[in-house]
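Handout, section 4.2: multi-component inputs.
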Amino acid sequence: MIKGYEVVVGLEVHAELNTKTKIYCSCKNSFGLEVNTQVCPICLGMPGTLPTLNEKVVEYAIKMGHALNCKINRVCKQDRKNYFYPDLPKSYQISQADIPLCQNGYLDVIMDGEIKRIGIERIHIEEDAGKLLHSDKFDGSLVDFNRCGVPLIEIVSRPDMRSSAEAKAYLETVRSILKYIDISDCKMQEGSIRCDVNVSVHKPGEPFGTRCEMKNVNSFSAAVRGIDYEANRQIEVLEAGGTVTQETRRWDDQKGISVSMRSKEDAQDYRYFPEPDLLTISVPEEKVQELKDTLPELPNAKIMRYVKDYGLSHYDAAMIVDVVEKSSFFEKCIDAGCKSPKLLSNWVLGEISKFMNEGKEISDTKLTPEKMSELIGLISDGKISTAAGKTVFDIILNEDRDISAIIEEKGLAQVSDQSALEAIADEVLLANEKSVTDYKNGKTNALGYLVGQCMKASKGKANPGAMKEIILKKIEG
Amino acid sequence: MKLYEYNAYELSEMLRSKKISSKELTESVLKRVEELDGSLQAYLYTDPDMSLKMAENADKMIAAGENRSRLAGIPIGIKDNISTKGIKTTCASKMLENYTPVFNATVVDKLNAAGCVTLGKLNMDEFAMGSSTESSYFKITKNPFDLSCVPGGSSGGSAAAVSSGEAVIALGSDTGGSIRQPASLCGVVGLKPTYGSVSRYGLVAFASSLDQIGSFGRCVKDVALLQDEIMGHDSMDATSAYREYRPLFDGLNSDISGLKIGIPSEYYGKGVKPEVSKAVMSAVSELEKQGAKVTPISLPSTEYALSAYYIIACAEASSNLARFDGVKYGYRAENCNGLIDMYEKTRSEGFGREVKRRIMLGTFVLSSGYFDAYYKKAKLLQKRITKEFDDAFRSVDVIITPTSPSEAFKIGDRIADPLAMYAADICTVTVNIAGLPAVSVPCGYSEAGLPYGMQIIGRKFDEQTLLNVALAHELAFGGFRRPKI
Amino acid sequence: MDIDIRHIAKLSRLKISDSELEGYEKEMGEIIAMVEAMPDIKDELTVDPDNVMKLRSDEIGEVKYSRDEILKNAPKTVAGCVVVPKTVD
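Output:
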């Protein structure tokens, strides 16, 4: 709430699907290849060519529809959206107008542990356009058609979000689902997921204000900045006694401002009509059900389960679930018999995340769920110390070796033998009489120091828990 | 008799029994083209060297016994809106004057595989929009029966070439009558097959939901032969019908006893010349004598068909022709001031008047606020017209009407009056709207000797019955009458 | 029914000169007058559940064309790209 105004946000997310081929031709669907090498007469819209619809595009969109609790229109059609632009070879985009493949769903977003339900108006399938390249060296613009015909789904939310933070949580959840059901690579910097933002402001209790649509929002953080900017702009207009005009604006993330692109009066007339080159899409009832039944566990359910079954904090659970590879490894370790999910979670978010942040994948290493579980077991049983565990971890990351052999070789086994530990304790207490006195005078942190000294004397092999008990017993008599 | 005068099915026998070679035959046809086309103007492009090479290859194919098709070695002309790899495909438009496709239409691939000899590309109305071939950017094709008359359109070049002997057979396309009407005006047989039975891949689209490639020949058997070669499912065309196609030529049978013929009164009244109706009805009574049963039927929505047709066709055309924008291929205007100016100049200079008018009409009927009043209404009428045909075909096997309301008209007579020109299509558009097959066969001649045509309409995918009736008529009426040119 | 030819031409990306305007207005007016005689039908456009298409399986096809071949019809190319007048956004 800013100056008594409530912000109302609706989002249109475009996600490129990771099918093998394009939506209407059998060209490879790939990113980053040399300009105009992934094109054929069909995706270039050459005279006489015709589209044929990729069945996987329909299936992927239905999967997303199920994930977002939508009604699936298993009998539907495609329509043409007509407009001229150099990156659109046919001068129309094949899309869906009045009957989208999926509609009337919802998505639950978890914010600060609370569930917020966002309505989903529709999900439809369509083709992407090419890319325009500009250069100062050059008088015109260059067109690269490689992206033409890359399959997209457009996910349109209802105006159910009330802050930029909610919008961000929604976007992150959508992205996470796309990754879990494995239909999009969701690489923001490659433009594989983009969004248009609709923003309006109003005073609670009053009708919704006039909305502005913002295009060119290329990252989630840009969405947050754009929404905040746009909401403030509209509030300023209203506070100054003005009215917000319905228009399409362009977000300039570098300058941090939105600028007007076109007003409602100039709104494009897309002249939608049914695509005559394609007939009815009819997905069998059983197929629709099968796609629902084979949907993997979705991220929100996963987070809840990690909290409930494994006692993880919501924050840690969400951090693991955020990355498919982390959660998949986490679950494989549990399946391999890992006894302490909480300790495992610390390792996944600690050591494993550390190398993953450097761009390495788990599959790039020699680490297996079996070895990880064994290692966690040894640590939680006190057989080796955490420090020794790290030494072992670094080795099994790079070499396929037996953990017990490593412990043996490096002498990493923890000393839990009572007499050996007592000998160390005696030695340390003798050399640190001042600390003993301090402890007795109430400086309890002296105990930690003494245990540390024992660990040092044992070259890290002593079991710190057992050590602590012995020292306490000796000091307190 | 010169070789170019024979029918394809006769030539096919002569080729297979090695009485003639494809090279001799092709030379004969090419000579005819050379002598005649200066005045007839049917072709936009020929390449005799290429044709002769193809003929030699066909001869080798036949000599090696590798000819699977009856059309091996037969010279064929192709309408210039059908994509031919390495051969300019202009749609008779300035817009595509220098466009050379990198791929073949599916039908062209099929004909090449069959060993057909390509003669060249045939003139047409620009982007197949017209009924006289006068809207071609390049030339005006003449009617072989009277050089001062139009050959009809839009496949005027195809009809004129087959009629004059400049081709043995030819491919055309039919969106509202563009095969049948010129066939009628040039005295040849023209078949518009069921929508979905011939792949549209490589046919430059005018109105996707109505366009269909079809065949021209001087006799019913030739049309059956060509149709057999081009029909069939194509995975490149999502609107192509997935079904079994039985060979038509082998199924030809002129026994029509017991066949039920429907005569819809709506096609014989206003706007149709009485002489044309008379010629058609006299042919029908001939069929009755052969044992067919004739019953009057009614197709009441016919009077609105032309309106529905123009709305649907122009709406689709406005979108289909939007790709011609000067960016990827085709004409681009010079000295443009920015992108929008480039688009507008390119399209205004590249398209002819008829095309521009239809694009604008189509844009209008789809534009915001008008969709329901025009496009939606037209689509609902399409549904009704289709149902009326379905109902009629419950009691009859074929429906017979005139093809064109009049014989060929003079060049220049109607070009300035779109409604008069559109009237040429009143008997043919319903067939495209309902997606049905129909064939036009010559059925009489005017006092001046200009041909009249009779249209036989059939059930979806029942080309066989159509052609059987056409054959029965052809046998009774007498075959092709050669124009004195 | 008056048609705003200028607006329609703009949507169609066509330039209509002043001298052409009247002719188009007259012809289009006549055609629209003809089509307006169509009867009203109380019905809705629906998707035909019987007119179903086969979908394509998601398999990569062979690359048949080089970039030069695919761009050879383009009016202007530079560095493997089609060139157009500068676009704003």
